[in-house]
Automatic annotation (TrEMBL):
Broad enzyme group: isomerase
GO terms under biological process: pseudouridine synthesis; rRNA processing
Official protein name in the record: Pseudouridine synthase
Gene name of the record: rluE
Top-level taxon in the UniProt lineage: Bacteria
Annotated region (Disordered), positions in chain: 186-259
Family designation: Belongs to the pseudouridine synthase RsuA family.
Iron as UniProt keyword: no
One Pfam family here: PseudoU_synth_2
PANTHER family: PSEUDOURIDINE SYNTHASE FAMILY PROTEIN-RELATED, RNA-BINDING S4 DOMAIN-CONTAINING PROTEIN
Domain Pseudouridine synthase RsuA/RluA-like, first and last residues per copy: 3-148
Enzyme Commission code(s) on record: 5.4.99.-
Length: 259
């Protein structure tokens, strides 16, 4: 299992496909075996998790596994305790109620790097910082949550996924490092890396172990796949119309009435 941590800069797309207007992750990471587990929006910064393990993406992002992701949000206005309490209880968004978050007001971090371009401020309105921890991964969730309680996010930085801490790793924007999974308790229950199986494969205990179902006829021979169409059938294979014996041939004229 290979895990690489990237500090994604602002205005970089979380994808490997090249883009004409913006830099992408491919500008910083060149390993073709790595895949992104837990994306960041283009206007968000911070910890991005990449791995070559097939099942680790879902393991990290599935809310049932309680892998909390920590964000620092600079919000528009002096955030109130009432707003923080709303975040802790859950916020009603357009796509439903969020799970309760862990939220607290903090001072501006001393280690914080300058953003390019800088955040635009309104001179008559102060800003404040909030640390938010969530275990969901909805689209632009933190931004929508802070806006819903009256404090829109101006700048968003992801600092942790589980026990992986971007600040402890000391990565500046654009820098990356490979970590050893055995040093982190988050990966002790990671599922085995298995190839993808389609839904047509048997998944229940006692099945074929992931092989496609092979159906057989009454003589034990494999059935031919597919269903015959009517024009492919022999005359004795075609279905017969069932009637009550009163059906008469249609003798009505389909053209113009003769004169």
């Amino acid at each position: 299992m290979k895990i690489v941590i990237l500090n994604k800069p602002y205005d970089v797309l979380s994808q490997f496909r090249e883009d004409d207007a913006h830099l992408t992750v491919s500008h910083f990471v060149h390993d073709p075996d790595l895949r992104i587990a837990g994306r960041l929006d283009m206007d968000s910064e911070g910890l991005m998790f990449l791995t070559d393990h097939g099942g680790l993406n879902q393991f990290i992002t599935n809310p049932a596994n309680k892998k909390y992701k920590t964000y620092l949000a600079q919000v528009d206005g002096d955030v109130t305790e009432e707003a923080l309490e709303q975040l802790r209880k859950g916020v009603e968004l357009a796509d439903g109620m969020t799970l309760p978050a862990k939220a607290q007001k903090i001072d501006e971090p001393e280690w914080l790097w300058e953003r390019n371009p800088p955040v635009r401020f309104r001179a008559n309105i102060p800003t404040s910082w909030v640390e938010i921890q969530i275990c969901e991964g909805r689209n632009r969730q933190v931004r929508r949550m802070t806006a819903a309680v009256g404090f829109p996010t101006l700048r968003l930085i992801r600092t942790k996924i589980g026990s992986i801490d971007l600040v402890q790793l000391g990565l500046q924007p654009g820098e990356q490092t490979e970590i050893e999974p055995l040093l982190y308790p988050d990966f002790k229950d990671v599922p085995e890396d298995k190839p993808y199986r389609s839904r047509s494969y048997v998944k229940k205990p006692g099945g074929t172990g992931g092989k496609p179902i092979q159906r057989k006829d009454k003589d034990g021979k494999p059935k031919k796949s597919g269903t015959k169409r009517i024009w492919q059938m022999d005359e004795n294979e075609k279905p017969r119309r069932k009637t009550n014996g009163t059906t008469r041939p249609n003798t009505k004229s389909r053209g113009r009435r003769p004169r």
